């Protein structure tokens, strides 16, 4: 059998594919990775120029698969320890006390916005929520850009003071 007999090789590979994937899976612990490595083993077998001196093509295919699995395991990036969570890293999920704190901050911020004078509140919401520029806000509210800036500063100071109260308490 030469490597140019692609249909013959395809039949050969399909005959041993599931068995090869199962063996590699036992070595690497991941069926998807094993399937990739089995495919690579097949490609490497196809790449051999002279297969006439190989006594058993199936044994040779399994040896290539085994070697690829061992190389995969030796690569530090593929070691299972790297895939496990590092105990020193903080949990990416919010803890219950953090959720309570964020809810309090949101409530305080919403209360602060609601208590702002109408002009400050309008400018603040148009800028921070709607993302309008100073000139767009001035046109929409029919006020000068300087007034927009002044009201936004007032609104931001109110929010800043309110949020600092949480820290001080």
Can you walk through the features of this model?
The chain is an all-alpha fold and 169 residues long. It has two domains: 6-83, Rna Polymerase Sigma Factor, Chain: A; 96-168, Winged helix-like DNA-binding domain superfamily/Winged helix DNA-binding domain (Arc Repressor Mutant, subunit A, Orthogonal Bundle). The chain is built from eight helices and no strands. The chain is elongated, with a radius of gyration of 33 Å. The mean pLDDT is 83. InterPro entries: RNA_pol_sigma-70-like, RNA_pol_sigma-70_dom, RNA_pol_sigma70_r2, RNA_pol_sigma70_r4_t2, RNA_pol_sigma_r2, RNA_pol_sigma_r3/r4-like, WH-like_DNA-bd_sf. This is Sigma factor, ECF subfamily. It comes from Nitrosomonas europaea (strain ATCC 19718 / CIP 103999 / KCTC 2705 / NBRC 14298).
């Amino acid at each position: 059998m030469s490597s140019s007999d692609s249909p013959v090789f395809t039949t050969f590979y399909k005959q041993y594919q599931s068995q090869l994937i199962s063996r590699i899976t036992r070595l690497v612990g991941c069926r998807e990775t094993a399937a990739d490595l089995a495919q690579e083993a097949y490609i490497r077998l196809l790449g051999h120029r002279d297969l006439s001196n190989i006594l058993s093509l199936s044994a040779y295919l399994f040896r290539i698969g085994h070697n690829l699995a061992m190389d995969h395991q030796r690569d530090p990036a593929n070691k299972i320890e790297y895939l496990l969570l590092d105990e020193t890293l903080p949990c990416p999920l919010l803890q219950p006390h953090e959720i309570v704190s964020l809810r309090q901050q949101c409530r305080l911020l919403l209360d602060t916005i609601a208590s702002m004078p109408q002009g400050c509140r309008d400018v603040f919401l148009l800028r921070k929520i709607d993302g309008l520029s100073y000139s767009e806000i001035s046109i929409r509210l029919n006020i000068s850009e300087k007034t927009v800036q002044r009201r936004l500063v007032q609104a931001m100071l109110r929010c800043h003071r309110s949020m600092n109260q949480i820290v001080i308490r």
